[in-house]
Design goal:
The protein is an alpha+beta fold. The protein has a single domain, classed as Roll (Nuclear Transport Factor 2, Chain: A), CATH 3.10.450. A hairpin with a 4-residue loop joins strand 1 and strand 2. Helix 1 packs antiparallel against helix 9 and helix 9 packs across helix 10. The chain is globular. 28% of the residues are buried.
Length: 208
């Protein structure tokens, strides 16, 4: 399957996770820190409220969703780490300029995907479960479920690590399927066929 066909197939699931608006506040691991899912709930509520309040502007200016995502979501994802894990062995072989270009296009791909259907899921009910892990370890998993009318809820888990006193997302699992693993498989097939430079060019074209 073509890498980009695979990416588009995953759009539905990627957009669902964005309905959560998993943007996590800067925090220190201390006795006063809120549990991770409490942070997720706070910011999800803030983001969904923003979408509803600015619905009229978003309807008139569809690209404005990108600005909302960049403001509330993007700063809390470690795209370099995600890109490194996504490319795997290909990252180690890549030149510095290739790495930089891939990170930017990978980031743009996710922003574009999220923005395309973000508004459709703002009214979905979200349920949270206690996070897994130990705060002091600097690595936790926030668990949630998206209720689907007439269907089973979709479990979505967020893996976060502590980086410079900030909780950063580095992977997302949907129905126990890792976002990073899926992209790694898809991109790896294309790199083997046409090379990393061609993958970056194709991503750039797709992101225009």
């Amino acid at each position: 399957m073509n890498a980009f066909v695979f990416v588009e197939v995953k759009n539905f699931y990627l957009v669902i996770l964005i309905a959560l608006a998993s943007v996590f506040f800067v925090t220190n691991v201390s006795a006063n820190v809120l549990e991770p899912q409490a942070l997720v709930e706070q910011v999800a509520e803030k983001t969904i409220k923003r979408l509803k309040v600015e619905k009229e502007r978003i309807d008139k200016e569809p690209n404005y969703v990108n600005a909302v995502i960049n403001e509330l979501l993007i700063p809390h994802f470690d795209f370099e780490r995600m890109a490194r894990w996504t490319l795997g062995k290909h990252w180690r072989k890549a030149k510095s300029d290739q790495k930089k270009a891939f990170v930017e296009e990978f980031k743009s791909l996710l922003v574009r995907t999220y923005a395309s259907s973000l508004r459709e899921f703002a009214d979905q009910e979200i349920k949270y479960s206690p996070f897994r892990g130990v705060l002091e370890s600097g690595d936790v998993t926030v668990r949630s479920e998206i209720e689907q009318p007439g269907g089973f809820p979709i479990p979505i888990n967020y893996k976060l690590f502590l980086k410079d006193a900030r909780w950063m997302v580095y992977d997302i699992t949907i129905d126990d399927i890792s976002l990073i693993s899926n992209y790694r498989s898809s991109f790896s097939r294309q790199i083997r066929k046409t090379g990393l430079d061609k993958l970056i060019l194709d991503l750039a074209d797709k992101n225009k």
